[in-house]
Design goal:
This protein has 256 residues and is mainly alpha-helical. Among the domains are: 45-128, no CATH class; 144-219 and 232-248. 80% of the residues lie in helices and 0% in strands. The chain has helices at residues 2-61, 68-84, 86-92, 97-107, 112-124, 129-142, 152-164, 169-184, 189-205, 212-222, 229-255. Helix 4 (97-107) runs antiparallel to helix 5 (112-124) and helix 7 runs antiparallel to helix 8 (169-184).
Length: 256
């Protein structure tokens, strides 16, 4: 009996060792493939980023020849492709959005439909709300409320950035009041409704409310989208400063 068990063990043991080795090899190969695939994705993302950067830089150098609007359209389509490639942006971030934003403004400051999306993306994804406000000022200097029905939203978006990211309630209030005035110039029921909403927000902001919790939430939403360390540190510092201020306020409230 013992001899028989020994013979069976002698047959099973090599098979068991072979199975363990095979599983180990498969795991190692799988890990290698995963690492190789990830490196390939990063490389492709960086190449795509460089391609978009070259497109922007080239458009800055080419003479307009009277086709500025078409060039703005072309750049906007490139921007949409850039923004829509979520896989690449996971590796590179959204650092080219400010370049797209500013270059499109240079060619067509009246391209209001584009600026409604560019302003949001530049603040939320690129993490540059201060730059967004500065660029929106340039746009708003160049357009009038008669241009298109939706131009009043540019003031609303600007006010939202001033409120959520800068905490400047007075600047935001002025933007919302202007948005209401522009909305009324549409001359339709939708314009009246939009104006009422903006006036309601402006009335609330006149009380100078504490918006630090909202600011903290807004900056926290930005943080996952920032990939370069310098810009990321700027956002982290803002978040930490807001947390410290709120902690002091909460402590005072508990004491009182």
């Amino acid at each position: 009996m013992l001899a028989e068990l020994t013979q069976k063990s002698a047959r099973v043991l090599p098979c068991l060792i072979l199975s363990i080795c095979t599983i180990g090899i498969i795991k190692l190969q799988s890990q290698h493939y995963h690492n190789s695939t990830k490196q390939s994705q990063i490389s492709n993302s960086l190449q795509e980023e460089s391609s978009h950067k070259r497109t922007i830089d080239l458009q800055k150098l080419i003479p307009s020849l009277g086709f500025d609007n078409l060039r703005a359209d072309y750049l906007y389509l490139n921007y949409v492709q850039y923004l829509g490639n979520k896989e690449a942006r996971e590796h590179t971030g959204y650092s080219l959005i400010p370049d797209y934003f500013e270059t499109i403004i240079n060619y067509d400051p009246h391209f209001s439909e584009a600026y409604l999306t560019l302003s949001t993306a530049n603040s939320l994804y690129a993490g540059k709300p201060e730059k967004t406000i500065a660029l929106m000022d340039r746009v708003l200097e160049s357009i009038s409320p008669e241009l298109l029905p939706e131009v009043s939203f540019l003031w609303t978006y600007k006010g939202l950035d001033e409120l959520l990211y800068l905490g400047d309630t007075q600047a935001a209030r002025k933007s919302y009041l202007t948005a209401a005035q522009w909305a009324l110039q549409r001359g339709d029921k939708a314009g009246v409704q939009i104006a009422r909403r903006n006036l309601s927000t402006a009335k609330f902001l006149a009380k100078n409310p504490d918006t630090r919790e909202a600011q903290l939430a807004a900056w926290s939403m930005i943080l996952p989208n920032i990939k370069d360390e310098q810009s990321r540190q700027v956002v982290v510092d803002k978040i930490q400063a807001l947390k410290s201020e709120l902690a002091v306020v909460n402590q005072k409230n508990k004491t009182n």
